[in-house]
C-alpha cells in the first residue's frame, strides 16, 4: 500500500491483530548442548518474541502428533513455538539412554539459554509424558520460566518399569549389569543399564514438585483413559505443586489420539491467559534461582 506521494506506508498491527493474522516461518534450528551434542528442532516463528518450548516423551521425537499439533495451535494464536529432539532421540546427536531425566532437563536448559541469547522471552515450557516430568524437573531446578505445562507425566517413577523390563528386573539387572528391551516383532530397541535404571529410580518427583516456585503457574493435563500412565498420577501432581491447575480430558488416551483439538485448546488457553498476566515473571523468577540449582533425591 502506498501513500499519495508514492512513499510506502508502515502499518503497525496490535498484538491481537497479529494473533488473528500470524505470518509463520518454520525454520530448522540446531543447538549444542553441554556435552557437545547437536540438538535439532523446528522453530515456528510468528514474529513474536514470546516463545513456548515443546518437549517430547520417552522414545519419541518432535514429529509426533501431540508436539506438532500443539506447536501449530500456538502458531495460530501468534505465539512462536519450538519443538526439538532431546539428545539420542529423533534427529539429534547422542545415544539414547533409559532414565536420563536430569540430562534432558539440561538439554532443555541449553535450548532456553540459546533463545534468550537471541532476546526471546520464554513464556512457557510444555512436555508430553516423560517430557512432562522433564519440564517440572527443570522448573524446580532453575525457577526462571513463568508457565509450565505437564501433559500426561508420570508421578510415581517406580511404576511402569516392570511392563518394559519384566518381573524381577532389579535382581536381573544386578546380576548381568543390563537388560535388553525388544519390541513385539523381536527387534532390539534399547539397553537398560543398572546406572540408567538407578537414574530413573533416584529422580524424586515429589521433591521436584514442592520445590517449584509458588509464582510459577503449572497446568497438568491428563486423559481419563490413559493406559500407560494412570490418571491417578495427575492427582498426585495436584497435591504437591503450589500453583497448580488440573484438567482431565474425558476419553483421552496417552497420546490424545482422538482429542488433539481439545488438548491444544486447553494448553493454548492456559498459556495465553497467564502469559498476559505474567510478562515480567521470567525476570522475577530468575532472581530466585538457588545457587546450587539442584534437587536432592530422597529415594
UniProtKB/TrEMBL annotation:
Domain called Serine aminopeptidase S33: residue spans: 49-158
InterPro entries xref list: AB_hydrolase_fold, Hydrolase_4
UniProt xrefs under SUPFAM superfamilies: alpha/beta-Hydrolases
Highest taxon listed in the record's lineage: Eukaryota
Protein name: Serine aminopeptidase S33 domain-containing protein
Gene: LOC115970308
